[in-house]
């Protein structure tokens, strides 16, 4: 059974990709719902599928296997009364890749309920771990989400800095505080 996923690349039109769910394919599931949570507390997100709209069926748990060496951060926002802060916006800022946004919600509806946690995967900082990863013609290493890229060492006049790909100089934003 194939599934489709719609994705989006930076500065490009959306694309549709055929996926093979592999072990998660459950054609006999009746009224399937799903949730993503850290089921066993190892920092990796796991997939839990529930069944049983028209008859009793067991839960299925699929453990994540990729990213075992990565680091993870879980944030559990609460209201001032201690309840889970559903609807909260959680933003994590990192030096390497900027802002990462999560919205705490209750899931998508019938048979689905999500853990009210903002879960952030923090991958490897290749530019620090492998400082000589870039070639001489593009010696500046910039971390990106899930990897890195190299750019030329462009020099700019005072008040300007290289753009993201190092092809031009752009004005430095002035701090208004």
Automatic annotation (TrEMBL):
Q: Which Gene3D superfamilies match?
A: Laminin
Region described as Disordered: spans on this chain: 1-36
Superkingdom of the source species:
Eukaryota
DNA damage is among the record's keywords? no
Q: Which SMART domains does the record match to this protein?
A: EGF_CA (SM00179)
Keyword list, A-Z: Disulfide bond, EGF-like domain
Query: InterPro entries of this UniProt entry?
Result: Crtac1, EGF-like_Ca-bd_dom, EGF_Ca-bd_CS, NOTCH1_EGF-like
Q: State whether keyword Disulfide bond applies.
A: yes
A Pfam family that this protein carries is EGF_CA
Q: Which residues form the EGF-like calcium-binding domain?
A: 123-170
Q: MF terms per GO, please?
A: calcium ion binding
Q: Which GO terms describe its biological process?
A: axonal fasciculation
Q: What is this protein called?
A: EGF-like calcium-binding domain-containing protein
């Amino acid at each position: 059974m194939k599934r489709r996923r719609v994705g989006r690349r930076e500065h490009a039109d959306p694309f549709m990709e055929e996926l093979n769910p592999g072990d998660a394919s459950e054609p006999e599931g009746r009224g399937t719902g799903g949730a993503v949570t850290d089921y066993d507390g190892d920092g990796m997100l796991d997939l839990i599928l529930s069944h049983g709209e028209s008859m009793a069926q067991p839960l299925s748990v699929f453990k994540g296997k990729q990213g075992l060496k990565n680091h993870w951060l879980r944030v559990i926002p609460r209201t001032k009364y201690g309840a889970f802060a559903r609807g909260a916006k959680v933003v994590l800022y990192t030096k390497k890749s900027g802002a990462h946004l999560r919205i705490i919600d209750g899931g998508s509806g019938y048979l689905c309920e999500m853990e009210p946690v903002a879960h952030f995967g923090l991958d490897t900082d290749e530019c620090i771990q492998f400082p000589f990863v870039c070639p001489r013609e593009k010696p500046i290493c910039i971390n990106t989400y899930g990897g890195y890229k190299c750019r030329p060492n462009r020099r700019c006049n005072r008040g300007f800095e290289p753009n993201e790909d190092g092809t031009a100089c752009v004005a430095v934003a002035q701090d208004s505080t």
